[in-house]
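Example record for the data management plan.
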Amino acid sequence: MTLVLVVMPPLLVGMWAGRRGILERPREHLTLLVRTAVVGLGVAVVAGLPDALVTAEFLPEPEPQVLVLLWIVHDLAGWAGGPGWAALITLVALWLTERATSRGDGDGSPGAIATAIAAVGERSLSCYLAQAVVFTVVFAPYGLGLGATASASGAVLVAVLTWGLTVALAEISRRRGLRGPAEVLLRRLTYARTRLPGSPEGRR
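Corresponding structural encoding:
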């Protein structure tokens, strides 16, 4: 049940973004992407900072009730951080692509790193959900429970390795012409909805 509550908010946001092609056509949604990156990551940092400082022992550990509250706020902040990271990655990929084109590097196509990051942007929902599952399994008390014992550097290492793995998988999917599984499911749900008997498409 807890995993569903963690996954559903970004899933719904991803469905909304997917139906509007926000990540597929970033130039058309530049203002929204910038605001999402700034606000989403800003909220995630501010809301997660108290728990991070306590975990790193820069602040004394508060009462158990306050500590639980900090955990909850930290987890909720991830709902803002997820879209923020997706928007930031998309903006970086767009910038690298346009920079390569304007400079006339080679044939004007983006480099390998930009291409891989763009592949993540095109499969951002799948990548984010995969990362959420990994972090839940590794750190949650009902998973491996390493969140209570892992050091800050260990947690960062897990995060970096997980992100790197999603980049590699996204790039492999791009080379094979495959969409992310979450994006495929979203597409099917979207088409199923537009083909209902009561919809305009269903009446054609």
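Summary line stored alongside the record: The longest helix spans residues 64-103.
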